[in-house]
Fold this protein.
Amino acid sequence: MTCTKSGSGGFTIIEAVVTIAILAILTAIAVPSMTALISGNRLSSSANETLSAMMLARSEALRSSRRVVVCKSSDSSSCSAGATWADGWIVFVDEDSSGSRNGTETVLRAGAAAKGVSVSGEAGLENAVIFTPRGSLTVTGGSPKIVLGVSGLAQRELQFTPTGRVSVVVGGVYP
């Protein structure tokens, strides 16, 4: 007596279509969550990078007893009022107290916000942050801050005290 095995061991067309449909549904659910996660990480990374630059500038001002400037820069070598904070920024010791970098002043650090992150300065920090030789800000009054945001996510605010200390605070939802 001989036994024969029934079935071919493969997938039927219906099984393949059901599997593909389930994968499509799972992908449709996962992609928006992944996009928000990536945007949130870019925002946090940009806030931390900017905070690090501000802390370096203040520390260098205290260490060297000279003014140190963090300004907007689109080319990583000079201050440009026409740029945005998201385009980039540079940190340099302001040897001649001009508020802008001349050719002999060394750039201590340059950076930029991650793609898709908006950055703006408020209350006197629209173009530059200037630390005095004592580590304080040249801005007096108001609530100086730099706001970083991605639409629909909680914004990050770099808030400055009059003594020059800076911290990151999670704010409201960015428009």
The helical segments are 13-64.
